[in-house]
Amino acid sequence: xxxxxxxxxxxxxSAGLAVHRDRARNGRGPRICVLVGxxxxxxxxxxxxxxxxxxxxxxxxxxxEVYYVTRSADPGYRPDGYTLVRAGHASGMARGLRxxxxxxxxxxxxxxEIDPDVIYQRGGGIFTGIAARHARARGCRLVWNIxxxxxxxxxxxxxxxxxxxxxxxxxxxxxxxRHASTIVAQHADQARLLEAHYGRTPDxxxxxxxxxxxxxxxxxxxxxxMWIANLKQCKQPELFLxxxxxxxxxxxxxxxxxxxxxxQGRAGDALRTAIARSPVEYTGALPQExxxxxxxxxxxxxxxxxxxxxxxxxxxxxxxRVPVVSLNVNPEGVLERHRIGVQSHTFxxxxxxxxxxxxxxxxxxxxxxxxxxxxxxxxxxxxxxxLMDLLVP
Length: 393
Known about the structure:
Layout: E1 6-8, H1 18-22, E2 31-35, H2 46-60, E3 65-70, E4 83-86, H3 97-114, E5 118-122, H4 126-138, E6 141-145, H5 163-179, E7 182-185, H6 188-198, E8 204-205, E9 223-228, H7 237-246, E10 253-258, H8 265-277, E11 281-284, H9 288-296, E12 300-303, H10 312-319, E13 324-326, H11 334-337, E14 341-343, H12 347-359, H13 361-378, H14 382-391
Parallel strand pairs: 2-3, 2-5, 3-4, 5-6, 6-7, 7-8, 9-10, 9-12, 10-11, 12-13, 13-14
Antiparallel strand pairs: 1-4
Helix pairs in contact: 2-14, 3-4, 4-5, 10-13
């Protein structure tokens, strides 16, 4: 029996995961382990949402025994049709080498107990290396899905207190990249980076997938300009606050910010104060259904991130006829190529682009309609089928 683990699903803690190892697989199909840092009940990020869509489809189509292994999940959450294994850290264990070695031991042991036929890992880092080590040792397959461009574009590691942790994390990620059985890219830019830096060609290019919108698309007045992300440094939420402040005089626009606060300490306190003083309506973190309901009534989505993989919020917005104005992120030049948004490059241009689209209803509406056509053609749930076929040929 595994000690110190929080195990949810069809097996009690007292029984332990060893029970699963001994169960016959007759009629159950292969064992599929989804390994992601957080569960969607705890963190509402893009990787978690894509994992949720995949797990629900695997369960719905009875493709095999599904396990979701993670560090964090809502303690009150109960999975339906799959086993959730939550193995957190000891209390107060901050990110660092101690946590890394804890993860190597704990998650390595969990994978041995589950004994999967295939591991699906999304979000490059320590887990990529852990999964690759297990896959090589036990002869199972590892399907790694690139989430962000930095995972396949090595960044210089700055000299700081956690440099040893970052070096180990990078080495584990690179080990996983070299030894993954199958690599999935989200778009061609990631494929080029993977080949340039690691000499590997992805085995498949599968774009993010989302269900078709169910909400009525009603665009009300004043226009709604949205910003959706977890609030952290790389998302640059302060720039959306500056945008709203710059356009404060616009009585025909409201600015809505959605996302959980992940900035800590004094910086987090300063950001909360700035939000309170700004004209922005801040909702905090919301479930996907509520985010989609807000987007169904929105007119523009603004993105201020320094970098992304392929933003799920782009797809959610496009499906609801909402063009995107992005400061930096523009995978494959999709915004201009399909005329479904604008990449601004600089903050002054971002202000001008938002102002121009607020002023021109016809251009905004035409852009939104093209965006919906593009999203339904390229980002539908059909893509889940392609990913499931990779996992369970």
